[in-house]
Amino acid sequence: MGALKFIVWTACAVGLGIFLSTGEVDGRTPLEHMQRAWKRSVKPDAVDRVKDGLEDAYEDAKDAVSRKTDAAPRERISAEDRAAVNRIIAQKK
Asked: For the range 53-61, what are the long-range contacts, defined as Cβ-Cβ under 8 Å and sequence gap of 24 or more?
């Protein structure tokens, strides 16, 4: 029964894709209608800002991963925080 469902849903998805790319509504395909609506509603600078942000995040991640192994890891815990944690641990013992 699961295989039959899979085949039916796959056929429906393929049929929808074919309709979106080749079927005509008001002289244009639905895909062309969506592309025109996208171009009218989305500002190019907004897409560029998102793209630049993603590129910056990618570069930051790449730098973090490719950091040399002999470099010490970045310490993000302050001395006061470390002392507080040590006091809590000492109380539990």
From this structure: none
**Considering the entire predicted model, what is its pTM?**
0.37
d(CA 77, CA 83): 10
Contact 32, 25 (CB under 8 A): no
- Do the Cβ atoms of 20 and 29 come closer than 8 Å? yes
User: How many Cβ atoms sit within 10 Å of the Cβ of residue 28?
Assistant: 13
Tally of residues, the chain: 93
Tens of pLDDT along 61-75? 887 777 655 566 666
The residue to which tokens 């815990």 are assigned: 77
